[in-house]
Amino acid sequence: MTRRSEELSVEEKIVVFFDICSSSTILEDLLATDNMKTYRDLLISLNSFLQTRGEQDEFVVYKFIGDGWVLLFPPTVSGSALINFLTRLSECFSIRFRNRLIPVLQNTPGVVGITFGVDKGRLIKITMNDRDEYIGRALNVASRLQGAIKDKDKNPAYKVLVSKHAYSGLRISPQVCKVQEVTRRLRNIRNNQKMELVKLTLRVQAK
After folding, report:
1. CA distance 90 to 84
2. Is the pTM of the predicted complex or chain greater than 0.85?
3. Phi, psi of 147 (to 5 degrees)
4. Is residue 57 classed as helix, strand or coil in its secondary structure?
5. Alpha-carbon 129 to chain mean position
6. CA 16/CA 21 separation, integer angstroms
7. End-to-end alpha-carbon separation of the chain, Å?
8. CATH number at residue 45
9. Domain housing 156
10. Helix (H) / strand (E) containing 125
11. Domain annotation covers residue 13
């Protein structure tokens, strides 16, 4: 466990929050037909995909948050590599949702997919209960970004809301995804003032 006498351990990270769209609606539907195991198996499959890709692409699967995950990438990750990963993850989800959940759902939600929030910043690392934990503004901002995608967007699936700071460092080419400048108010961030952000639309081609 980190002790108060130790120096602060600070690490620069690209923080990615992602969340499954319509998860509450999906869970209610599956609960009514006693098909919760199907959803559990979907989550296990996605986690396996993340763990495998994390070893390949050198990112950390930091936390599972019930209907999504928090991932930590090194600040050196390229924009093209990050977008490629997010696209592959989206396709992985789309295929598994179509093959495993749609057959047992009574009603398919209007919005199906996953959404992402991305920020970059310095995080303080501490060890608690034999586990590395992180605190920092980038975590809060990425979480708010992910939640704000659906604002003013009726079809938020497979879209990424990125802070201008993170976007400028990643240098994401408009050739790999659709790029759009937007403004959003993020709860408890900069006194709820409008922030200039970048929304990316992934080119997902689920087979």
Report:
1. 10
2. yes
3. -70, -20
4. helix
5. 25
6. 16
7. 46
8. 3.30.70.1230
9. 9-201
10. strand 114-128
11. yes
